[in-house]
Amino acid sequence: MRKHINYFRVQRYKIKLYCANISFNFFFCTFAARYFKVKRMMKRNNINFLFAIMLIISLYTSAQTQTDDKLISNDDFVLVEGGSFLMGCNSDDRDCYPDEQPQHTVTVSSFFIYRYEVSVAQYRLFCTKTGRAMPPTPSFGWQEDAPIVNVTWQDAVAYAKWAGGRLPTEAEWEYAARGGNLSKGFRYSGSNFFDDVGWSYENASGKTHRIGSKQPNELGLYDMSGNVWEWCNDNYDIYYYAQSPSKDPQGATNSKMGKVNRGGGFSFDRSFLKVSARRGSATQAVGSGTGFRIVKTEK
Predict the structure, then answer these.
(1) pLDDT tens digits for range 265-282
(2) Pair 142, 208: CB distance under 8 Å
(3) Do 12 and 84 share a domain, yes or no?
(4) Where are the beta strands (DSSP E) in the chain?
(5) Distance (Å, rounded) from C-alpha 169 to C-alpha 250?
(6) Res 289 pLDDT > 50
(7) Which domain range does residue 19 map to?
(8) CA-to-CA dists, residue 51 to 10, 34, 36, 37, 61, angstroms
(9) How confident is the model at residue 91 (pLDDT cuts 50, 70, 90)?
(10) φ, ψ for residue 63 (rounded to 5)?
């Protein structure tokens, strides 16, 4: 009996390695891994084969329901290991604005960030499941695989909570945009050339584009520069950096200047795509160039 059990363990392990290291059909990988798990259980308990097949299908259907229920996969959350970095803009940069100064050292704890901006399809499902209305349709229309826009800060917070996450702090956002501990010091998120990584006024033709259609940054994150501005959790203040805490800053406490937006967007020039660029927007403001992505403290 032990010999048979060890055999099935080895086969399941091989399948896991195979599925993890090559681009392979998801359905086969899931079915095969569960087949050996259930077959081992059959050996131990003398379970009928037909019952085992029914059990596999039940397990698979349950997993698919959990995945499809929110169209958010845990596999697309990227671990950003904690560390320290220089936040803000060097005063020698001619494109440096007062709200990006002074440049200062910040330490951020580890967290997980979603690889993509939240899409129209993902937000539409949220609206369907919760009975909310979709935001106003932008002039360029809805494209299901493009980032959602015309959402308020409250809308973004509600979606993040529904999906089991939250909005990033501004420090988390910039640290991730810079590539975290893998940072190569690029001006934009993943390159010194804006067109490699982002959609801006210069190349977007006045509309959003499919998420993930430009190259990612060092952490494998897409559209951290351009496509749409992204809501952060923090209150915005022009002079916040002069008084920001050095450890996990949470934003200004008494500001009446709205919430932080990061990343630049398709209707702004490339200078706003640099990793230090920031702006503030009223929490109830909506714009065809503003969306969001979510983070989790734990995956």
Answers:
(1) 999 999 999 999 999 999
(2) no
(3) no
(4) 77-80, 83-87, 104-108, 111-114, 229-235, 259-262, 278-281, 290-291, 295-296
(5) 6
(6) yes
(7) 2-68
(8) 24, 14, 14, 14, 15
(9) confident
(10) -65, -40
- β partners of residue 84: 107
Q: Which of 103, 117, 86 is nearest to 228 (CA)?
A: 117
Closest C-alpha among 66, 56, 65, 51 to residue 30: 56
Phi, psi of 249 (to 5 degrees): -60, 145
Q: Which of 36, 52, 68 is the last residue of a domain?
A: 68
Longest dimension (CA), the chain: 74
Q: Compute the distance between CA of residue 240 and CA of residue 234 in angstroms, rounded to an integer.
A: 11
- What is the secondary structure of 202-238 as a DSSP string? TTSTTS---TT-S---TTS---SSSSSEEEEEEEP-T
Place of tokens 């959790």: 233
Are 266 and 282 found together in one domain? yes
116 and 55 in a single domain? The answer is no
Together in a domain, 81 and 133: yes
Residues 189, 96 share a domain: yes
Domain match, 203 and 141 both: yes
Q: Which of 149, 76, 150 is nearest to 113 (CA)?
A: 76
Helix, coil or strand: residue 191:
strand
Q: Is there a single domain that holds both residue 134 and residue 252? A: yes
